[in-house]
Specification:
The strands form seven sheets. Strands 20, 22, 23, 24, 26, 27 and 28 form a seven-stranded mixed β-sheet that branches. Strands 9, 10, 11, 13 and 14 form a five-stranded antiparallel β-sheet that branches. Strands 6, 7, 8 and 12 form a four-stranded antiparallel β-sheet that branches. The chain folds into three domains: about 160 residues, no CATH class; about 130 residues, Sandwich (Immunoglobulin-like), CATH 2.60.40; about 140 residues, Immunoglobulin-like. With about 450 residues, the protein is of the alpha+beta class. It contains seven helices and 28 strands.
Length: about 450
Protein backbone atom coordinates (compact mmCIF):
# COMPACT_ATOMS: atom_id res chain seq x y z
CA UNK A 1 0.00 0.00 0.00
CA UNK A 2 2.83 2.41 0.85
CA UNK A 3 4.51 1.73 -2.49
CA UNK A 4 1.24 2.38 -4.33
CA UNK A 5 0.67 5.71 -2.54
CA UNK A 6 4.29 6.87 -2.86
CA UNK A 7 3.64 8.45 -6.25
CA UNK A 8 1.03 10.81 -4.75
CA UNK A 9 2.59 14.03 -3.49
CA UNK A 10 1.97 15.58 -0.07
CA UNK A 11 1.28 13.74 3.11
CA UNK A 12 -0.99 10.70 3.13
CA UNK A 13 -2.87 9.20 6.05
CA UNK A 14 -4.38 5.77 6.58
CA UNK A 15 -6.76 4.62 9.30
CA UNK A 16 -5.92 1.05 10.26
CA UNK A 17 -8.55 -0.85 12.27
CA UNK A 18 -7.34 -4.04 13.94
CA UNK A 19 -7.91 -6.14 17.01
CA UNK A 20 -4.25 -5.95 17.94
CA UNK A 21 -1.17 -7.33 16.23
CA UNK A 22 0.88 -10.09 17.80
CA UNK A 23 4.59 -10.55 17.14
CA UNK A 24 5.63 -14.15 17.58
CA UNK A 25 9.23 -14.03 16.40
CA UNK A 26 12.08 -12.10 14.91
CA UNK A 27 10.66 -12.53 11.42
CA UNK A 28 7.64 -10.43 12.43
CA UNK A 29 9.90 -7.69 13.78
CA UNK A 30 11.74 -7.60 10.48
CA UNK A 31 8.45 -7.30 8.60
CA UNK A 32 7.29 -4.52 10.92
CA UNK A 33 10.52 -2.61 10.36
CA UNK A 34 10.20 -2.94 6.59
CA UNK A 35 6.55 -1.78 6.69
CA UNK A 36 7.40 1.29 8.80
CA UNK A 37 10.34 2.22 6.58
CA UNK A 38 8.24 1.90 3.42
CA UNK A 39 5.55 4.16 4.94
CA UNK A 40 8.13 6.75 6.01
CA UNK A 41 9.68 6.91 2.54
CA UNK A 42 6.22 7.24 1.00
CA UNK A 43 5.31 10.10 3.40
CA UNK A 44 2.46 7.97 4.74
CA UNK A 45 1.20 8.21 8.32
CA UNK A 46 -0.73 5.32 9.83
CA UNK A 47 -3.35 5.90 12.54
CA UNK A 48 -4.12 2.65 14.31
CA UNK A 49 -7.40 1.92 16.09
CA UNK A 50 -7.93 -1.05 18.40
CA UNK A 51 -11.45 -2.15 17.47
CA UNK A 52 -11.76 -4.18 20.69
CA UNK A 53 -12.44 -0.91 22.50
CA UNK A 54 -12.37 -0.73 26.28
CA UNK A 55 -12.06 -4.26 27.60
CA UNK A 56 -12.95 -5.83 30.91
CA UNK A 57 -10.75 -8.74 31.98
CA UNK A 58 -12.67 -10.90 34.49
CA UNK A 59 -10.45 -13.14 36.64
CA UNK A 60 -12.03 -16.34 35.34
CA UNK A 61 -11.84 -15.28 31.71
CA UNK A 62 -14.62 -14.22 29.39
CA UNK A 63 -17.10 -16.40 27.48
CA UNK A 64 -14.70 -16.81 24.54
CA UNK A 65 -12.51 -19.19 26.58
CA UNK A 66 -13.03 -22.38 28.52
CA UNK A 67 -13.25 -22.29 32.29
CA UNK A 68 -10.01 -22.06 34.25
CA UNK A 69 -9.15 -24.97 36.55
CA UNK A 70 -5.70 -24.09 37.86
CA UNK A 71 -4.74 -22.10 40.95
CA UNK A 72 -3.68 -19.22 38.66
CA UNK A 73 -7.32 -18.07 38.68
CA UNK A 74 -7.13 -17.35 42.41
CA UNK A 75 -3.54 -16.06 42.56
CA UNK A 76 -4.03 -13.33 39.95
CA UNK A 77 -1.71 -14.94 37.37
CA UNK A 78 -4.56 -15.45 34.90
CA UNK A 79 -5.47 -11.76 34.94
CA UNK A 80 -1.80 -10.82 34.63
CA UNK A 81 -1.41 -13.03 31.57
CA UNK A 82 -4.51 -11.44 30.02
CA UNK A 83 -3.05 -7.97 30.60
CA UNK A 84 0.30 -9.05 29.12
CA UNK A 85 -1.39 -10.49 26.01
CA UNK A 86 -3.46 -7.36 25.47
CA UNK A 87 -0.46 -5.10 25.99
CA UNK A 88 1.66 -7.13 23.57
CA UNK A 89 -0.93 -6.88 20.80
CA UNK A 90 -1.40 -3.15 21.40
CA UNK A 91 2.34 -2.45 21.51
CA UNK A 92 2.66 -3.30 17.81
CA UNK A 93 -0.16 -0.88 16.95
CA UNK A 94 1.63 1.85 18.91
CA UNK A 95 4.95 1.10 17.20
CA UNK A 96 3.36 1.18 13.74
CA UNK A 97 1.65 4.51 14.45
CA UNK A 98 4.53 6.32 16.18
CA UNK A 99 7.10 5.11 13.67
CA UNK A 100 5.14 6.60 10.76
CA UNK A 101 4.13 9.87 12.44
CA UNK A 102 0.58 8.80 13.24
CA UNK A 103 -1.16 8.01 16.50
CA UNK A 104 -2.64 4.94 18.16
CA UNK A 105 -6.15 4.95 19.68
CA UNK A 106 -6.53 2.26 22.31
CA UNK A 107 -8.97 1.31 25.07
CA UNK A 108 -11.78 3.51 23.83
CA UNK A 109 -15.23 2.83 22.43
CA UNK A 110 -15.35 6.21 20.67
CA UNK A 111 -13.68 6.14 17.24
CA UNK A 112 -14.52 9.76 16.49
CA UNK A 113 -11.22 11.15 17.90
CA UNK A 114 -9.27 9.04 15.41
CA UNK A 115 -10.95 10.74 12.45
CA UNK A 116 -10.65 14.17 14.07
CA UNK A 117 -6.92 13.79 14.80
CA UNK A 118 -6.14 12.54 11.33
CA UNK A 119 -7.96 15.49 9.73
CA UNK A 120 -6.22 17.97 12.02
CA UNK A 121 -2.78 16.57 11.27
CA UNK A 122 -3.26 16.68 7.51
CA UNK A 123 -4.95 20.10 7.35
CA UNK A 124 -1.72 21.96 8.19
CA UNK A 125 1.85 20.71 8.44
CA UNK A 126 5.43 21.55 7.51
CA UNK A 127 7.64 19.48 5.25
CA UNK A 128 11.30 19.47 6.32
CA UNK A 129 13.97 17.79 4.24
CA UNK A 130 17.70 17.31 4.39
CA UNK A 131 20.42 15.24 2.80
CA UNK A 132 22.36 12.98 5.14
CA UNK A 133 26.16 13.10 5.09
CA UNK A 134 26.28 9.51 6.36
CA UNK A 135 26.71 7.42 3.21
CA UNK A 136 27.10 4.07 5.00
CA UNK A 137 24.58 1.53 3.75
CA UNK A 138 24.40 -0.29 7.05
CA UNK A 139 20.60 -0.56 7.43
CA UNK A 140 20.69 1.00 10.89
CA UNK A 141 18.00 3.22 12.37
CA UNK A 142 18.87 6.90 12.14
CA UNK A 143 17.14 9.04 14.69
CA UNK A 144 15.63 12.42 13.79
CA UNK A 145 15.06 15.14 16.39
CA UNK A 146 13.11 18.31 15.54
CA UNK A 147 13.19 21.23 17.99
CA UNK A 148 11.66 24.70 17.90
CA UNK A 149 12.48 27.81 19.91
CA UNK A 150 8.91 28.41 21.05
CA UNK A 151 8.19 26.63 24.32
CA UNK A 152 4.40 26.79 23.90
CA UNK A 153 4.48 24.58 20.80
CA UNK A 154 4.54 20.80 20.81
CA UNK A 155 6.17 19.14 17.81
CA UNK A 156 4.92 15.83 16.41
CA UNK A 157 7.30 14.31 13.89
CA UNK A 158 8.61 10.98 12.73
CA UNK A 159 11.33 9.64 15.00
CA UNK A 160 13.68 8.55 12.22
CA UNK A 161 14.24 6.18 9.34
CA UNK A 162 16.22 3.10 8.41
CA UNK A 163 19.23 3.67 6.20
CA UNK A 164 19.55 1.67 3.00
CA UNK A 165 21.38 -1.60 3.54
CA UNK A 166 23.65 -3.35 1.11
CA UNK A 167 23.73 -7.12 1.10
CA UNK A 168 26.70 -7.41 3.45
CA UNK A 169 24.82 -5.46 6.14
CA UNK A 170 21.49 -7.22 5.73
CA UNK A 171 20.24 -9.55 8.44
CA UNK A 172 19.42 -13.24 8.07
CA UNK A 173 15.73 -12.36 8.20
CA UNK A 174 16.15 -9.79 5.41
CA UNK A 175 17.99 -12.32 3.28
CA UNK A 176 15.34 -14.98 3.83
CA UNK A 177 12.64 -12.44 2.99
CA UNK A 178 14.49 -11.56 -0.24
CA UNK A 179 14.45 -15.22 -1.30
CA UNK A 180 10.76 -15.63 -0.44
CA UNK A 181 9.85 -12.46 -2.35
CA UNK A 182 11.71 -13.72 -5.41
CA UNK A 183 9.89 -17.06 -5.23
CA UNK A 184 6.52 -15.29 -5.01
CA UNK A 185 7.28 -12.66 -7.67
CA UNK A 186 5.81 -13.01 -11.15
CA UNK A 187 8.79 -11.12 -12.59
CA UNK A 188 12.01 -13.11 -13.02
CA UNK A 189 15.33 -11.77 -11.77
CA UNK A 190 18.20 -12.15 -14.23
CA UNK A 191 21.12 -10.50 -12.41
CA UNK A 192 22.58 -13.98 -11.96
CA UNK A 193 22.22 -16.25 -15.04
CA UNK A 194 20.51 -19.53 -14.15
CA UNK A 195 19.70 -22.55 -16.32
CA UNK A 196 17.62 -25.59 -15.40
CA UNK A 197 16.62 -28.99 -16.75
CA UNK A 198 14.34 -31.76 -15.52
CA UNK A 199 13.35 -35.30 -16.43
CA UNK A 200 11.19 -38.15 -15.15
CA UNK A 201 11.62 -41.81 -14.15
CA UNK A 202 8.85 -44.13 -13.02
CA UNK A 203 9.13 -45.66 -9.57
CA UNK A 204 5.53 -46.95 -9.52
CA UNK A 205 2.29 -46.18 -11.31
CA UNK A 206 1.67 -43.19 -9.03
CA UNK A 207 5.24 -42.14 -8.08
CA UNK A 208 7.86 -40.67 -10.37
CA UNK A 209 11.33 -39.38 -9.63
CA UNK A 210 11.93 -35.99 -11.27
CA UNK A 211 15.65 -35.10 -11.34
CA UNK A 212 16.35 -31.36 -11.29
CA UNK A 213 19.68 -29.86 -12.38
CA UNK A 214 20.45 -26.16 -11.88
CA UNK A 215 23.46 -24.52 -13.52
CA UNK A 216 25.19 -21.17 -12.95
CA UNK A 217 28.13 -20.07 -15.15
CA UNK A 218 31.27 -20.01 -13.03
CA UNK A 219 32.24 -16.63 -14.48
CA UNK A 220 29.16 -15.08 -12.80
CA UNK A 221 30.17 -16.19 -9.28
CA UNK A 222 32.49 -13.92 -7.25
CA UNK A 223 35.11 -15.62 -5.08
CA UNK A 224 37.12 -14.38 -2.10
CA UNK A 225 40.56 -15.65 -1.18
CA UNK A 226 40.66 -17.34 2.23
CA UNK A 227 43.94 -18.99 3.11
CA UNK A 228 44.92 -21.28 0.26
CA UNK A 229 41.41 -21.46 -1.24
CA UNK A 230 38.96 -19.32 -3.19
CA UNK A 231 35.54 -19.52 -1.57
CA UNK A 232 31.97 -18.58 -2.34
CA UNK A 233 28.47 -19.66 -1.29
CA UNK A 234 25.19 -19.94 -3.17
CA UNK A 235 21.73 -20.08 -1.63
CA UNK A 236 19.29 -22.26 -3.56
CA UNK A 237 15.52 -22.13 -3.06
CA UNK A 238 12.72 -23.56 -5.14
CA UNK A 239 9.15 -24.77 -5.09
CA UNK A 240 7.16 -27.08 -7.36
CA UNK A 241 3.39 -26.47 -7.54
CA UNK A 242 0.48 -28.12 -9.29
CA UNK A 243 -2.11 -26.32 -11.43
CA UNK A 244 -4.00 -25.25 -8.28
CA UNK A 245 -0.79 -23.65 -6.94
CA UNK A 246 -0.50 -26.22 -4.18
CA UNK A 247 3.13 -26.88 -3.23
CA UNK A 248 4.32 -30.44 -3.87
CA UNK A 249 7.96 -29.99 -2.92
CA UNK A 250 10.52 -27.39 -1.90
CA UNK A 251 14.26 -26.82 -2.28
CA UNK A 252 16.24 -24.97 0.39
CA UNK A 253 19.99 -25.41 0.48
CA UNK A 254 23.31 -23.58 0.69
CA UNK A 255 26.11 -24.63 -1.65
CA UNK A 256 29.63 -23.95 -0.38
CA UNK A 257 32.38 -23.69 -2.98
CA UNK A 258 36.03 -24.00 -2.04
CA UNK A 259 38.66 -24.42 -4.78
CA UNK A 260 42.38 -23.90 -5.08
CA UNK A 261 41.95 -21.55 -8.01
CA UNK A 262 38.77 -19.74 -9.05
CA UNK A 263 40.16 -19.42 -12.58
CA UNK A 264 39.32 -23.06 -13.28
CA UNK A 265 35.73 -22.62 -12.04
CA UNK A 266 35.18 -19.46 -14.08
CA UNK A 267 35.79 -21.44 -17.27
CA UNK A 268 33.15 -23.99 -16.29
CA UNK A 269 29.65 -24.23 -14.86
CA UNK A 270 28.61 -24.80 -11.26
CA UNK A 271 25.81 -27.36 -11.09
CA UNK A 272 23.39 -28.25 -8.29
CA UNK A 273 21.42 -31.50 -8.54
CA UNK A 274 18.34 -32.52 -6.58
CA UNK A 275 15.01 -34.20 -7.27
CA UNK A 276 11.32 -34.54 -6.39
CA UNK A 277 8.92 -37.45 -5.97
CA UNK A 278 5.71 -36.55 -7.83
CA UNK A 279 2.57 -38.25 -9.10
CA UNK A 280 1.68 -37.87 -12.80
CA UNK A 281 0.44 -34.38 -13.65
CA UNK A 282 1.34 -30.88 -14.82
CA UNK A 283 3.47 -28.72 -12.51
CA UNK A 284 5.37 -25.47 -12.44
CA UNK A 285 8.85 -25.29 -10.96
CA UNK A 286 10.58 -22.08 -9.91
CA UNK A 287 14.14 -21.96 -8.60
CA UNK A 288 15.93 -18.90 -7.18
CA UNK A 289 19.70 -18.71 -6.69
CA UNK A 290 21.62 -16.03 -4.81
CA UNK A 291 25.36 -15.58 -4.47
CA UNK A 292 26.21 -14.35 -1.01
CA UNK A 293 28.83 -11.71 -1.68
CA UNK A 294 26.99 -9.04 -3.63
CA UNK A 295 23.53 -10.55 -3.11
CA UNK A 296 22.77 -10.88 -6.81
CA UNK A 297 19.93 -13.27 -7.55
CA UNK A 298 18.68 -15.15 -10.56
CA UNK A 299 15.57 -17.23 -11.14
CA UNK A 300 14.32 -19.82 -13.57
CA UNK A 301 10.72 -20.98 -13.98
CA UNK A 302 9.53 -23.82 -16.17
CA UNK A 303 6.68 -26.26 -16.65
CA UNK A 304 7.23 -29.84 -15.54
CA UNK A 305 5.05 -32.48 -17.16
CA UNK A 306 5.10 -35.92 -15.56
CA UNK A 307 3.29 -38.21 -18.01
CA UNK A 308 1.11 -41.08 -16.94
CA UNK A 309 2.84 -44.04 -18.59
CA UNK A 310 0.20 -46.51 -17.50
CA UNK A 311 -1.54 -46.59 -20.88
CA UNK A 312 1.45 -45.69 -23.10
CA UNK A 313 2.12 -48.21 -25.90
CA UNK A 314 5.83 -48.22 -25.07
CA UNK A 315 6.66 -46.91 -21.61
CA UNK A 316 9.97 -45.02 -21.61
CA UNK A 317 11.55 -42.49 -19.26
CA UNK A 318 13.17 -39.25 -20.37
CA UNK A 319 16.61 -39.57 -21.95
CA UNK A 320 19.42 -38.08 -19.85
CA UNK A 321 22.58 -36.95 -21.66
CA UNK A 322 25.74 -36.70 -19.62
CA UNK A 323 29.52 -36.62 -19.87
CA UNK A 324 30.30 -36.91 -16.17
CA UNK A 325 30.00 -39.46 -13.40
CA UNK A 326 30.88 -39.12 -9.75
CA UNK A 327 30.90 -41.44 -6.72
CA UNK A 328 27.33 -41.99 -5.60
CA UNK A 329 26.05 -40.16 -2.56
CA UNK A 330 23.39 -41.66 -0.31
CA UNK A 331 20.37 -40.56 -2.32
CA UNK A 332 17.53 -43.03 -2.22
CA UNK A 333 15.23 -43.77 -5.15
CA UNK A 334 17.38 -41.92 -7.66
CA UNK A 335 17.57 -43.92 -10.92
CA UNK A 336 20.67 -41.95 -11.95
CA UNK A 337 22.61 -43.70 -9.18
CA UNK A 338 23.81 -47.09 -10.42
CA UNK A 339 26.61 -49.43 -9.43
CA UNK A 340 28.14 -47.01 -6.95
CA UNK A 341 28.28 -44.03 -9.31
CA UNK A 342 25.93 -41.15 -10.07
CA UNK A 343 25.28 -39.83 -13.56
CA UNK A 344 25.37 -36.01 -13.68
CA UNK A 345 22.85 -34.69 -16.25
CA UNK A 346 24.04 -32.12 -18.75
CA UNK A 347 21.79 -29.04 -18.72
CA UNK A 348 23.26 -27.27 -21.75
CA UNK A 349 23.93 -30.36 -23.93
CA UNK A 350 27.27 -28.83 -24.93
CA UNK A 351 30.14 -31.34 -25.10
CA UNK A 352 33.79 -31.48 -26.14
CA UNK A 353 35.23 -33.98 -28.59
CA UNK A 354 37.56 -35.33 -25.92
CA UNK A 355 34.61 -36.33 -23.73
CA UNK A 356 32.56 -39.51 -23.57
CA UNK A 357 28.81 -39.11 -23.96
CA UNK A 358 26.41 -41.22 -21.88
CA UNK A 359 22.75 -41.58 -22.85
CA UNK A 360 20.67 -43.11 -20.06
CA UNK A 361 17.00 -44.12 -20.12
CA UNK A 362 14.67 -46.84 -18.87
CA UNK A 363 11.93 -48.88 -20.58
CA UNK A 364 9.14 -50.08 -18.30
CA UNK A 365 6.99 -53.21 -18.57
CA UNK A 366 8.42 -54.46 -21.88
CA UNK A 367 6.51 -57.29 -23.49
CA UNK A 368 7.64 -60.80 -22.50
CA UNK A 369 8.21 -63.69 -24.85
CA UNK A 370 6.44 -67.02 -24.63
CA UNK A 371 7.39 -70.40 -25.94
CA UNK A 372 9.02 -73.65 -24.96
CA UNK A 373 12.56 -72.25 -25.23
CA UNK A 374 11.82 -68.90 -23.59
CA UNK A 375 11.69 -68.09 -19.87
CA UNK A 376 8.64 -66.38 -18.37
CA UNK A 377 10.50 -63.04 -18.03
CA UNK A 378 12.36 -63.12 -21.34
CA UNK A 379 12.20 -59.84 -23.30
CA UNK A 380 13.81 -58.59 -26.49
CA UNK A 381 14.66 -54.85 -26.54
CA UNK A 382 16.81 -53.21 -29.22
CA UNK A 383 18.26 -49.71 -29.05
CA UNK A 384 20.87 -47.44 -30.65
CA UNK A 385 21.68 -43.74 -30.92
CA UNK A 386 21.92 -42.00 -34.30
CA UNK A 387 23.41 -38.54 -34.89
CA UNK A 388 22.03 -36.32 -37.66
CA UNK A 389 23.21 -33.12 -39.26
CA UNK A 390 20.09 -31.81 -40.87
CA UNK A 391 18.53 -34.82 -42.59
CA UNK A 392 21.83 -36.68 -43.01
CA UNK A 393 22.78 -39.41 -40.54
CA UNK A 394 26.51 -39.09 -39.85
CA UNK A 395 26.97 -41.70 -37.13
CA UNK A 396 25.12 -44.47 -35.30
CA UNK A 397 26.16 -46.51 -32.28
CA UNK A 398 26.25 -50.31 -32.42
CA UNK A 399 22.93 -51.96 -31.64
CA UNK A 400 22.38 -52.72 -27.94
CA UNK A 401 20.18 -55.67 -26.98
CA UNK A 402 18.43 -56.67 -23.75
CA UNK A 403 16.82 -60.05 -23.14
CA UNK A 404 15.88 -59.65 -19.48
CA UNK A 405 15.00 -56.97 -16.95
CA UNK A 406 18.05 -55.52 -15.20
CA UNK A 407 16.15 -53.17 -12.87
CA UNK A 408 13.52 -55.43 -11.37
CA UNK A 409 12.51 -53.11 -8.52
CA UNK A 410 11.00 -50.78 -11.16
CA UNK A 411 10.18 -53.61 -13.60
CA UNK A 412 12.40 -51.85 -16.10
CA UNK A 413 15.16 -52.48 -18.57
CA UNK A 414 17.77 -49.72 -18.11
CA UNK A 415 20.08 -48.72 -20.97
CA UNK A 416 23.26 -46.68 -20.93
CA UNK A 417 24.64 -45.97 -24.38
CA UNK A 418 28.23 -44.73 -24.56
CA UNK A 419 29.61 -42.61 -27.41
CA UNK A 420 33.18 -41.44 -27.97
CA UNK A 421 32.58 -37.91 -29.24
CA UNK A 422 35.96 -37.83 -31.01
CA UNK A 423 34.15 -39.69 -33.80
CA UNK A 424 32.04 -36.58 -34.47
CA UNK A 425 33.16 -33.35 -36.08
CA UNK A 426 32.43 -30.08 -34.21
CA UNK A 427 28.95 -28.75 -34.82
CA UNK A 428 25.27 -29.02 -33.93
CA UNK A 429 23.62 -32.43 -33.98
CA UNK A 430 20.24 -34.01 -33.48
CA UNK A 431 20.63 -37.18 -31.45
CA UNK A 432 17.87 -39.72 -32.06
CA UNK A 433 17.56 -42.63 -29.65
CA UNK A 434 15.98 -45.65 -31.37
CA UNK A 435 14.07 -47.91 -28.97
CA UNK A 436 12.33 -51.06 -30.27
CA UNK A 437 10.30 -53.58 -28.31
CA UNK A 438 10.78 -56.50 -30.67
CA UNK A 439 8.26 -58.73 -28.90
CA UNK A 440 5.39 -56.22 -28.96
CA UNK A 441 6.38 -54.71 -32.31
CA UNK A 442 6.42 -51.18 -30.86
CA UNK A 443 9.01 -48.43 -31.04
CA UNK A 444 9.77 -44.83 -30.06
CA UNK A 445 12.39 -42.34 -31.29
CA UNK A 446 13.03 -39.60 -28.70
CA UNK A 447 15.30 -36.80 -29.88
CA UNK A 448 17.53 -34.18 -28.29
CA UNK A 449 19.74 -31.41 -29.67
CA UNK A 450 23.41 -31.06 -28.73
CA UNK A 451 26.55 -29.17 -29.63
CA UNK A 452 29.96 -30.81 -30.02
CA UNK A 453 32.95 -28.46 -29.79
Amino acid sequence: MADALATIEQRKSVLYFASGLNRTGIENQSQLRVAINAAVRANLSIYTVDVRGLQALPPGGDASRASQFSSATFSGQTVQRQFDSTFSSQETLVTLASGTGGRAFLDTNDFHPAYTKMIEDTSMYYVLGYRSTNTAKDGRFRKITVTVKRRDVKVDNRHGYYAPADFQHSTKEDRDRQIQEQLASDLPNTDLPVYLSTGYFRLSDVRYFVPVSVVVPGAAIPFTRTGDEDRSTLDVAGVVRDKSQRPFGIIRDTVKLAVESAKDVKRKNVQYDTGFLLPPGDYSLKVVLRENQTGQTGSFETEVIVPNLKDAPLKISSVVASSQKQPARQRRENPLVRNGSELIPSVTHVFSRNQQLYLYFEVYDPATQTGREKSRNSIHMLTSAAFYKGDVKVYETPLAEATELNTRERHASAFELSVQLAQLQPGFYTCQVNVVDDVAGRFVFPRLAMLVR
